[in-house]
Automatic annotation (TrEMBL), chain A:
UniProt-listed Gene3D superfamilies: Acyl-CoA dehydrogenase/oxidase, N-terminal domain, Butyryl-CoA Dehydrogenase, subunit A, domain 3
Gene source species: Spongiibacter thalassae
Cofactor: FAD
Keyword annotations of the record: FAD, Flavoprotein, Oxidoreductase
Recorded family membership: Belongs to the acyl-CoA dehydrogenase family.
Ranges where the Acyl-CoA dehydrogenase/oxidase C-terminal domain occurs: 234-347
Limits of the Acyl-CoA dehydrogenase/oxidase N-terminal domain: 7-115
Protein name: Acyl-CoA dehydrogenase
TrEMBL record, chain B:
Family: Belongs to the acyl-CoA dehydrogenase family.
Domain called Acyl-CoA oxidase/dehydrogenase middle: residue spans: 127-219
Species: Spongiibacter thalassae
Keyword NADP: no
Name assigned to this protein: Acyl-CoA dehydrogenase
Residue ranges of every copy of the Acyl-CoA dehydrogenase/oxidase N-terminal domain listed in the record: 10-121
Length: 368, 403
C-alpha cells in the first residue's frame, strides 16, 4: 500500500486542478447550475483531457490508469464544485462495462473513452424497483419499471439499465437506452446544489434489440460493484468539497478582523478549524480504505463503501456546517461560495442513504 | 498512490499469533486481557521470553539488537501481542531511551545501555514534566549545573509512569539559563539509585499506582550521563515525539478494546438479552468500527509518509496530533460504551490482582473485571503526551500560521 502520489498521479491531479481553476470560475458554475444546461467547456474537456477514460484500458482508447486516479479527478471536481458528476459519467460506466466480453459492451466503453457517447447509470433505490424487459417481436424489446435515478443525466447520451429478461429474474440483460428516445421517460429535476438528477420511469418503452449490450451471467454482481465504485467516487468528490471549505475558512480566519485582531487568533475558532481538518482527514482515510476493496468480493467492497459513505457523510455535514458558522452571516448568502459548498455537501449526505440508514445497515453486518 | 491490501503481512501475523499461543503464559494473558496495570514481574518474564525469540526490541534496527522490522510489521506485532493479552513491554526504555541513545548517544552509551534495555534488565522512567511545566514544557526549572567533569542535578519532576520500577531515568534539565529555553535544555541518563533522589507515588483515580514524582537534590550525574551535546535536549525530545508520531493513535490498544467491547456485548448480563441484539448498541459499535478503520488507514498513511520522507514533511497534516486526538478519544469512548453495557456491574469496585491478591471478587460477569479500572485510568489518554487542546493548537497553527 502506498499513500504517496507518483508523478503520473500528480500530473493528472494538477492538470485537472489547473483547468478548473482557470476555466471554471464560480460565476460560470453558478450560471450553468441555474440553467441546467451542461457546461460545454467541462463536457469537452472530459474527453479532450482524457479524464473520462482515465480508468478505461488503453486497448479501448482509455488511459489505462485505475480507480485511484479516477478518485483524484473526482476530488478535483468536488473542489471546483463542478455541476457535472465525474463519478457518475466516468467511474460508474467504466466499472460496469470493463471486463464484459461482448463486442457490444466493449464498443460502448470505447465510445465513452473516445467521446462519442456519454453514459449514465440508472440507480435503483431501496427497496429496489426492478426493470423488466420483454421480447415483443424479433426486432423489439419492451421495457418497464422504475423509477431509477440517473446522475449526470443532463450530459448523458445513453442510460445504462439492467433488466430482468422475459420475467425470468435469474436472467438479466444490460440495456443502453439512447436518451433521445426517452423524452417522456426521463425527467430532470434540480437538486439543492444546482445539479440535475434524472428520474427514469419506463412503461412499455419499445427499443431496438441492439440496445441489449450484454447478457453476462454476473451482471447483477457487476451492477452492484459499479454502484459501489460510483459511490466511492462520489465520496472522493465530497472530499474535494471539504478541502475547499477548509481552505476558504482558513483564509477567512486570517483576514477577517473583529475586536481589532484576525478572528483566527481566537482559540475556540482555532480548535473548530482543527476539528474540521481532523474530520476531513478521517473521511479521506476511510475513502482510501474503500479503494483497497475494489477488487475484493463485491460484498466486502459494498460494506467498505458503506462505511466510507457513512463516515464521509458524517464528516461532510460537520465540515460544511462549521464552514458556514465560522464565516458568520456572509456564510448564509447565496452570493458567497461557501453556501454553495454547503448545499452540494448536503446533497451528498442525502443521496445513496443517509448516515442513519447506513449506520443501521452497517450495524446489521455485525455478527451476534 | 496504490491501495492494494498488503497480504504479505498475513503470513507474519500468523507466525506471531502462533508464537504467542505457545509462548505467552496463560495466567499472564488473563491478567493482560483484564487491562489492569502490568506487574513488573510479568513484564520482565515476558521480556525474557521475547528476548529468546529475538523480538524484544521490535522497533530497533538490527545493528543494535532489534528486529529491523518496518513500521507496518511492528504494528502487526503489537496488535497481536495486545490481542493475546501480553503485558506491555517497558515503553520508556524501548521506545524513548533506546532510539535517543542509538541516534544521538556515544558509543559507550550504546554499549552500556542498549543490551540491558533489550534484555529487559534495566527499567527506565521518564522525567520530563514538572509541577509547573506540563503543556508548557519549555518553562521547566530543574537545573543541571556543570561542576568539573560532572553535573549537579536539582529539581522536581512529576508524572513518571512506572517510576517505582525504574533503575534508570531519562531527565531533561536546564544547563544554560542565559539562552532561550529550547536551547538551554539538556538530555541526561540518570541512575535512579543515585544519592539525592527521592520518589513519591501518586495514586490515580482507579486507585492504581503507575504515576510518581521525583525530587532531585544535588544529585551528581557523571559526564557520561549527558546524551549528545549540551543544550540539544529539547531537539532530542522533539525527535522522540516525531519518531513516535505514527503510533499516537494506539491502534493495537483500540483494536483490543473493541474486541473486548464485542465480547461484553455478546454476554447475557443478569439474564438480559445481549446488548449486541439491540439496534442502539449495534449502531454505536458500527460507528466506532468505521472510525477505527479510518484511524488504521490514517496510521498506515503516517507510517508510509514517515518512512518515505526521510525527515522531510510530505503533507500538510499534523499526523501525530491528529492521530493522538482520535486515538485517545476512541479509547475513552470504547471504555464508556463498555461501562454502559455493564450497567450497575460497572459501578462495582473490582480490586486488581496486585492490589488485593487472593481477595474475593464481587458478583457479576467475570468479563467486568478491570473494565471500570481501565475506564477510569484512560481519562489520562487525552492528557498525556500533550493534551488534546495542545494538539488542536498544533493542527490549527499548521493551517493558520501565525495569525
Amino acid at each position: 500500500m502506498n499513500f504517496l502520489l507518483d508523478d503520473e498521479q500528480k500530473q493528472i491531479r494538477d492538470s485537472v486542478r489547473r483547468f478548473l481553476s482557470g476555466n471554471y470560475p464560480f460565476d460560470v458554475r453558478t450560471e450553468y447550475g441555474r440553467s441546467g444546461e451542461p457546461c460545454p467547456a467541462i463536457v469537452e474537456q472530459l474527453v479532450a483531457g482524457s479524464w473520462i477514460g482515465v480508468a478505461i484500458c488503453d486497448e479501448l482508447g482509455g488511459v489505462g490508469a485505475g480507480f485511484s486516479e479516477a478518485c483524484l479527478i473526482a476530488e478535483e471536481f468536488g473542489r471546483g464544485l463542478v455541476v457535472e458528476p465525474f463519478w457518475a459519467l466516468s467511474m460508474a460506466p467504466t466499472a460496469l462495462l470493463e471486463g464484459l466480453s461482448e463486442p457490444s459492451a466493449q464498443s460502448t466503453l470505447q465510445g465513452i473513452a473516445e467521446g462519442r457517447s456519454f453514459a449514465a447509470l440508472g440507480f435503483k433505490g431501496e427497496p429496489q424497483p426492478g426493470v423488466r424487459a420483454e421480447s415483443i417481436s424479433p426486432e423489439l424489446f419492451s421495457l418497464s419499471g422504475g423509477p431509477l435515478r440517473v446522475y449526470g443525466s443532463s450530459v448523458a447520451s445513453h442510460v445504462l439499465v439492467i433488466a430482468a429478461m422475459d420475467n425470468n429474474s435469474a436472467r438479466c440483460g444490460l440495456f443502453s437506452l439512447p436518451v433521445e428516445q426517452l423524452s417522456n421517460e426521463l425527467k430532470q429535476w434540480e437538486q439543492l446544489d444546482g445539479s440535475r438528477v434524472g428520474f427514469l420511469e419506463l412503461n412499455g418503452l419499445q427499443l431496438a434489440k441492439d440496445c441489449l449490450i450484454s447478457e453476462s451471467a454476473d451482471l447483477v454482481e457487476r451492477y452492484g460493484r459499479a454502484e459501489s465504485v460510483a459511490l466511492m467516487g462520489y465520496c472522493a468528490t465530497a472530499l474535494g468539497m471539504m478541502e475547499a471549505v477548509l481552505s476558504h475558512t482558513t483564509d477567512y480566519l486570517q483576514v477577517r478582523t473583529q475586536f481589532g485582531v484576525p478572528i483566527g487568533r481566537f482559540q475556540s475558532l482555532q480548535h473548530r478549524l482543527a476539528d474540521m481538518k481532523n474530520a476531513l482527514e478521517e473521511a479521506r482515510a476511510i475513502t482510501h480504505r474503500s479503494l483497497c476493496f475494489v477488487d475484493q468480493s463485491p460484498e466486502k467492497f459494498k460494506v467498505a463503501v458503506a462505511e466510507a459513505k457513512y463516515l464521509v457523510g458524517k464528516s461532510a455535514s460537520f465540515v460544511a456546517a462549521q464552514g458556514v458558522q465560522l464565516h458568520g452571516a456572509i456564510g448564509l448568502t447565496d452570493e458567497f461560495l461557501i453556501s454553495h459548498y454547503f448545499r452540494a455537501l448536503t446533497v451528498f449526505c442525502q443521496s445513496f442513504g443517509t448516515c442513519s440508514d447506513l449506520l443501521q445497515s452497517l450495524g446489521n453486518t455485525i455478527s451476534d | 498512490m496504490d491501495f492494494v491490501l498488503d497480504q504479505s503481512l498475513d503470513a507474519f501475523r500468523a507466525e506471531v499469533r502462533e508464537f504467542l499461543s505457545s509462548a505467552l503464559p496463560k495466567d499472564m494473558a488473563e491478567r493482560g486481557h483484564r487491562c489492569y496495570h502490568e506487574d513488573k514481574s510479568d513484564v520482565l518474564a515476558w521480556m525474557k521470553i521475547l528476548c529468546k525469540k529475538g523480538w524484544s526490541a521490535s522497533n530497533w534496527p538490527v545493528e543494535f539488537g532489534g528486529t529491523g522490522w518496518g513500521a507496518a510489521k511492528q504494528l502487526v506485532f503489537e496488535e497481536e501481542c495486545l490481542a493475546a493479552g501480553a503485558p506491555q513491554r517497558p515503553v520508556v526504555g524501548l521506545s524513548l531511551t533506546g532510539p535517543v541513545i542509538y541516534t544521538f548517544g556515544s558509543a559507550e552509551q550504546i554499549q552500556r545501555h542498549l543490551p540491558l534495555i533489550k534484555n529487559g534488565e534495566t527499567w527506565w522512567g521518564q522525567c520530563f514534566s514538572e509541577p509547573n511545566a506540563g503543556s508548557d514544557l519549555a518553562s521547566m526549572t530543574s537545573t543541571a549545573t556543570k561542576e568539573g567533569d560532572s553535573y549537579r542535578l536539582n529539581g522536581h519532576k512529576i508524572w513518571t509512569t512506572f517510576g517505582q520500577y525504574a533503575d534508570w531515568l531519562i531527565v531533561l534539565a536546564v544547563t544554560d539559563k542565559t539562552v532561550k529555553p529550547q536551547r538551554g535544555i539538556s538530555f541526561f541518563l540518570v541512575d535512579a539509585h543515585s544519592p539525592g533522589i527521592t520518589m513519591k507515588p501518586i495514586y490515580s483515580m482507579e486507585r492504581g499506582h503507575t504515576l510518581n514524582e521525583f525530587y532531585f537534590e544535588d544529585v551528581v550525574i557523571p559526564a557520561d550521563g549527558l546524551v549528545g551535546e549540551e543544550g540539544k535536549g529539547w531537539s532530542y525530545a522533539k525527535f522522540l515525539l516525531e519518531n513516535e508520531r505514527s503510533w499516537s493513535a494506539e491502534i493495537p490498544r483500540n483494536k483490543a478494546l473493541l474486541q473486548r467491547l464485542l465480547q461484553i456485548a455478546r454476554l447475557q448480563i443478569d439474564g438480559a438479552e445481549p446488548a449486541i441484539s439491540r439496534p442502539v448498541f449495534r449502531e454505536k459499535i458500527a460507528d466506532i468500527t468505521a472510525r477505527l478503520h479510518a484511524l488504521e488507514m490514517l496510521t498506515l498513511r503516517a507510517m508510509n509518509e514517515h518512512e518515505s520522507c526521510k525527515g522531510e514533511r510530505l503533507s500538510n497534516w499534523e499526523s501525530g496530533s491528529m492521530l493522538h486526538i482520535k486515538g485517545s478519544e476512541m479509547q475513552q469512548e470504547i471504555g464508556a460504551l463498555m461501562m454502559e453495557l455493564l450497567g450497575s456491574s460497572g459501578a462495582l469496585y473490582y480490586p486488581s490482582y496486585t492490589q488485593r491478591p487472593g481477595e474475593e471478587y464481587p458478583p457479576g460477569p467475570a468479563e467486568a473485571h478491570g473494565v471500570a479500572a481501565d475506564f477510569l485510568y484512560r481519562r489520562a489518554t487525552t492528557i498525556y503526551g500533550g493534551s488534546n487542546e495542545i494538539q488542536r493548537n498544533i493542527i490549527a497553527r499548521a493551517l493558520l500560521g501565525n495569525v
